[in-house]
Specification:
By secondary structure, this protein is of the alpha+beta class. It contains three helices and seven strands, in the order H-E-E-E-E-E-E-E-H-H. The strands form two sheets. It has a five-stranded antiparallel beta sheet.
């Protein structure tokens, strides 16, 4: 699966609730786990794969695969803690972010069963980070504004370079196709 990067519109959209958990959606969850693990991540939210719906998957330090559909954080601790966060949508950038140390979240699992989870430590951090994605918030929004501006600028430049490469690749492919078509046309005559 493609992981969308900062600067792509879907990452800033507020996501819609999931109406129904289907076999197709369960397959999407599985593909998200594979993509996340391959990218060396611990969480992946739907907007990061181009879907503006309220779900995410995580694997915390306990190695349990968890799916959260239509999650709601219902309480957070007063105690805050700092932790260096990164994001698969902004590879290569990390910043200390202050968040509540504990959270309680309600959601549906991959089978549509409702659950409530009290989490602390890394698990609480990942839940908050991924849940933010569902509201169009990325972790740099919660840190130093100067760092956020630097990351946003550098990610914009990366996207522009990637778009130029894709355009050049398409131009070359079209040129080759035109040459092959001309060669075939000569054979027919």
């Amino acid at each position: 699966m493609k992981i969308y990067k900062l600067g792509e519109e879907v990452l800033r959209q507020k996501c819609e609730p999931v109406a129904e958990i289907t076999d197709s959606l369960r397959e999407t969850f599985n593909e998200m786990f594979e993509t996340m693990i391959e990218a060396d991540g611990v969480g992946l939210a739907a907007p990061q794969i181009g879907i503006a719906q309220r779900f995410f998957v995580i694997i915390s330090d306990d190695d349990v695969r968890r799916v959260f559909v239509n999650p709601q954080i219902i309480s957070t601790s007063n105690e805050l803690c700092d932790y260096e966060e990164g994001c698969l949508s902004m590879p290569g950038f990390n910043e200390n972010i202050r968040r509540p140390a504990k959270v309680t979240v309600q959601a549906l699992d991959e089978n549509g069963k409702a659950f409530t989870l009290e989490a602390d430590g890394l698990l609480a951090r990942i839940i908050q980070h991924e849940n933010d994605h569902l509201d169009g918030i990325v972790y740099i929004d919660r840190g130093d504004p100067n760092f956020a501006a630097k990351v946003t600028d550098q990610m914009k430049k990366r996207l522009e370079r990637a778009a130029k490469k894709e355009a050049e690749k398409a131009r070359k492919a079209a040129s080759i196709a035109a040459k092959l078509a001309a060669k075939e046309a000569k054979k027919v005559k």
